[in-house]
Design brief:
Layout: E1 44-53, E2 60-70, E3 75-79, H1 86-94, E4 101-106, E5 109-110, H2 116-126, E6 127-130, H3 142-152, H4 157-170, H5 186-197, E7 204-208, H6 216-231, E8 235-239, H7 243-246, E9 251-256, E10 259-260
Parallel strand pairs: 3-8, 3-9, 6-7, 7-8
Antiparallel strand pairs: 1-2, 1-4, 4-5, 9-10
Helix pairs in contact: 3-4, 3-5, 5-6
The protein binds adenosine-5'-triphosphate and magnesium ion.
Length: about 260
């Protein structure tokens, strides 16, 4: 079911389905500051990213000039001490937070300086996000946890269901479609969250400590799934504190005090 596919430079691993949630984002929609060097074709290209948060005592400089490149098909583990800026960097790449300075390019498009509507469309088209605590809908079935967000994104119920069933099969949850998250194990819940993140065939799968809330077995389950997705061509950036989890990635990038540690 997984296919790396020709042209996977800008689309990740996919499940075959005719469904498509959105049209392509239009880069001409919003003014972007001076584009600088032309797009490289990389999956992620961050240059000189700075992000400072206001705080009571003194401003917190979460990103202090970050450069990051991720090539299509790479599986990058982002590591570093608590508070060093990992989640901030992930959010910036996801288009959930904006840099104060610097440039952010994803799938060949500049995303810094865009407005909220553009970013929402960009995320729908290009980004799948997995969080530490799953963020699932408690009262509805595994199937509807994927179908409902997909419908919010404009997919018809039938297409959304067909894709959701494919994804649940792919992620080993094919016999759990009608169960609610509460009766699933932690590893199964996180796999469901990953299925939901893959519903839009994202160019880039971003995960912030996806095994952080799981026991060893659940963590291994989820790591194995990421490895399979990577083998199928999916580009992944995953924040983790676990050296065992990071060992499953194709490259480890370390951060400290808002900067990438040189290799
Ligand atoms: N919205 C916010 N408002 C104020 N400060 C913030 C905000 N988000 C992050 N910070 C601060 O920015 C710094 C970096 O935070 P970030 O969440 O990126 O760290 P992290 O590396 O993900 O840490 P952890 O491993 O604990 O998750 C921290 O000092 C944090 O307190
Ligand atoms: Mg974090």
């Amino acid at each position: 079911m997984l296919c790396a596919g020709a042209g996977s430079a800008h689309r990740g691993a996919s499940v075959s389905t005719a469904a498509d949630t959105t049209g392509a984002a239009d880069p001409a929609d919003a003014a972007v500051p001076d584009a600088g060097p032309p797009a490289t074709g990389g999956a992620v290209r961050v240059r000189g990213a700075r992000r400072t948060f206001a705080a009571d005592l003194a401003p917190v400089r979460a990103l202090r000039g970050v450069d990051l490149d991720v090539e299509p098909g790479e599986f990058v583990a982002l590591m570093g001490p608590s508070g060093c800026g990992k989640s901030t960097l992930l959010n910036v790449v996801a288009g959930l937070d904006a840099v104060d300075d610097g440039t952010v390019e994803v799938a060949g498009e500049r995303i810094d300086g865009r407005d909220e509507d553009w970013l929402a469309r960009f995320r729908r088209t290009h980004v799948g996000i997995v969080f530490q605590f799953f963020n699932l809908l408690d009262g509805v079935s595994a199937l509807d946890n994927i179908v409902l967000p997909a419908m919010l994104h404009g997919l018809r119920r039938r297409a959304a269901e067909s894709r959701a069933r494919d994804l649940l099969d792919l992620l080993g949850l094919g016999d759990r479609t009608e169960q609610v998250p509460a009766v699933l194990s932690g590893g199964q819940r996180q796999r469901l969250a990953i299925a939901r993140a893959l519903a839009n065939e994202p160019t880039l799968l971003l995960a912030d400590e996806p095994t952080g809330a799981l026991d060893t077995e659940g963590g291994l389950e989820v790591l194995e799934l990421f490895r399979r997705l990577h083998a199928g061509g999916q580009t992944i950036v995953m924040v983790t504190h676990s050296p065992d989890v990071a060992a499953g990635a194709s490259r480890v990038v370390r951060m400290r005090d808002g900067r990438i540690v040189p290799e």
